[in-house]
Amino acid sequence: MKKKFILSFFFLFILYVQAQQITISLKDSLTNKPVSFATILLVQDDKHFYADYCNEEGVITIEENRSFDAVTFSCVGYKDKTITKEKLKKSVVYLTPESYQLDEVVITNKKVIDTLLLGELKEKKKGVLPLYIQNEVAVFFKNDFERDVALKTFLFKTWRIKYKTAIRLRLYKKRIFKTYHLSPNDPEKKKNYYNTVIPGEDLLGENIIIYLDPQKKEIIEVDFSQYNIPIPKGGVFISVECLGYYDENGNAINPDKNKLSELEMHTTTVDNYCIKYTNITRFWVNENQHYKIDYKYINNKEAPRNVLRSPTFGLKVVRLE
After folding, report:
1. For the chain, does the N or the C end have fewer beta carbons within 10 angstroms?
2. Structure pTM?
3. Is 81:93 a contact under the CB 8 Å cutoff?
């Protein structure tokens, strides 16, 4: 009798927990296929205060008793959609695809002259960059070519991959953003304005997900030739966004910080490396320029080169005629 009571209590408890959760499945409104790793933003008083991802199947579970006003669903290639908590009862949410126009040049039916490697892929390792979930790391590549060029492949160096890691790859046009620095030693708190280059408009509009398998020190090369992407005259940012980690059985896990996947870095003098720490603020920081400004206004000297680093990324591009 006691055993039956315990089992009954256990099943009632499971039912109670499930009743306190809202399970949402995100799907493409045109194809009805799952939208993998869409971003979920909880809204309170018109501000985002919590961010998470749905899984590969487009499913996310939200605690119903959590305090929030609405949820914003966001994913590259789709229009954002916000639903109030009161209306968040449907098990399926459809996201509408967004069209992107690559209007820089038409690259089909053009002759390829040669293939070139851009970036600092041959630089020696000087540190690593741990990939925290929701971190997005971007590197800028100039386009100094007189002829039209198109993206062929993206290469990046990993140092250690302990667990299977899901990442999203994105392309952006550059954005010149005016910001300022406040010196802590200035009693007047004068704002020192300067222009910074950060990722801007999404260039591709494709939800490109790849998985990094456990290994040590490897160059990953991803083929982009199928997308026919012209490199804008102003240059291009390419980014890696960490979406999650998985054990050998495919279960989502949260590794200790000393077991996170790592990208290889190298020293540089170029302000080409930006990072976005969380999906809540969606704010980019040009890391090396930030260090240079700090040293200038706080230490009254130039930043030493050993603190200026960048992820070791490269692009293979084809010149066209």
Report:
1. N
2. 0.88
3. yes
